[in-house]
Amino acid sequence: MNLARFDLVTLALFIAVARQGSISAGARQSHLAVGAASKRISDLEVALGTPLLYRHAGGVELTEAGEALLHHSLRVIHEMDQMASALSDYAFGVKGHVRLGANTSAITQFLADDLAIFMRNHPAIRISLKEENSTRIVNAVINNQADLGIFADRTPCVGLTTYPYRDDELVLMVPRHHPLATCSQVSFSDTLAYDYIGLSEATSLALRLKEESERLGKLLKLRIQVRGFDSICKMAVATQCIGILPRLAAATHARAMELSLIPLTDEWARRKLLIGVRDPDALTAAARLLLAHVQQHTPPDA
């Protein structure tokens, strides 16, 4: 087997092709001509002695061998990125780098304060924080694209080691003159007669509301979907629709707008945020420090 074919450019190209489902799209992402990219992939298949892609009119799909190569290529590229990052960090006086993924609930309610303390205590550690929905965060950790991930419970996370992070209370947010605004508390079932503003269907919060409305055998009247908590609040004021948000994240908006926050009586409205890692023993020293820090600042009942 000719190991010279396993150059980093070709491995990065193969990852791009696998993710894009197309040699031409992978070539564009890798800044290569389509012909050159196709030859690199073909040469790689010759070197390995097995097809890596099923080619068809709509693009490409990975063979079983291709799936195996993708797994190993991601590890190789990640390790090379770690090496480059470590060397550049030393050159600029930074001694560590942690890739952290977190959902919006964690960032807006808890993580800013936790990271501020950590950064004061560890000024030589650089943190790359990426905000994503919970499912993408789990996938990023599994695929070595993040060292740590913070996501909502109920998110499938097979293959990760998880730790508690924070408790997160969901509340109903209503305009001040809405019929539900006078309630001291309310069940989710009683809110389903009214129009909702919600997040995109990929978020853990949207999935939870969909699951619970289906369990009740009722329709969630989702009139508008937006991308952020502040957008939900603004649209609720403008349209007189209602929404469900984490209490701490909604509190600031509620004070600034004509909005009321009403507790939900449903048990599932008390959810947990989790910290997930792929392999605790394989974490860098900097990532272990951050994991220990956020666990230390987790309340005992979280």
Protein described:
Strands 3, 4, 5, 6, 9, 10 and 11 form a seven-stranded mixed sheet that branches. Strands 1-2 form a two-stranded antiparallel ribbon. It is 46% helix and 23% strand. Strand 7, helix 8 and strand 8 form a beta-alpha-beta unit. The longest helix has 28 residues. The protein is globular. It has eleven helices and eleven strands. The chain has two domains: 84 residues, Arc Repressor Mutant, subunit A (Orthogonal Bundle), CATH 1.10.10; 209 residues, D-Maltodextrin-Binding Protein, domain 2. With 302 residues, the chain is α/β, with parallel strands linked by helices.
Total helical segments: 11
Please report the first level of CATH classification, the CATH class of the largest domain.
Answer: Alpha Beta
- Quaternary form: single chain
What is the level-2 CATH architecture name of the largest domain?
3-Layer(aba) Sandwich
H and E string: HHHEEHEHEHEEHEHEHEHEEH
Observed structural traits:
single chain, 7-stranded mixed sheet, 11 helices, Arc Repressor Mutant, subunit A, D-Maltodextrin-Binding Protein, domain 2, globular, two-stranded antiparallel ribbon, alpha/beta, 302 residues, 11 strands
